[in-house]
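Course assignment 3, question 2. Fill in each field.
Student: A.L.
Task: Predict the tertiary structure for the chain below.
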Amino acid sequence: MKLFIHTGYYVVLLVLVLLTGCAKNDLSLAEMDALRTGNSGNDDARINEYLVKHNIEAVRDPSGLYYKILYFGDSLSVMQPTSIPTLAYTNKLLNDKVVASSFGGIDFDGRQLKDHILGWQIGLRKISKGGSILLFIPSALAFGPQSIGNLIPANSILISEVELIDFK
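Answer field:
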């Protein structure tokens, strides 16, 4: 009987170890690779130059994302990767050319946070519902080597001012 009880404990322990080892990360392998390789030193230098020129104090996240919290929000409701955000935003390039704007709240057809660019995934979790943040997103955390139509060239640094109106 003791052998059966001890064997049961070992089986439960083994199952827990296997489940823990198989837990899915919030980021895909490609996204983790982008974070590991980081942004180029050139992106860092260009972002810092912009910050100095515009007299903006921003914090650098270990991922390479620079951010300035404009308003933290309600301090109670922080998004998870599977949350569906409703945002008001403006995206521009380092030359201050606006390339996209929501003109009010938008939920991107119910897209979860984990399906947005990495810069937003990292930055929007730094504020809570009702908050707003200014993000300086290196190309590796934005659209990388892809160009987005004729608006966003490949390897562009993106500046996003985002208000987190709500999320589900």
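Instructor remarks: The beta strands are 59-60, 66-71, 85-93, 98-101, 132-137, 158-167. The mean pLDDT is 83.
Grade: pending
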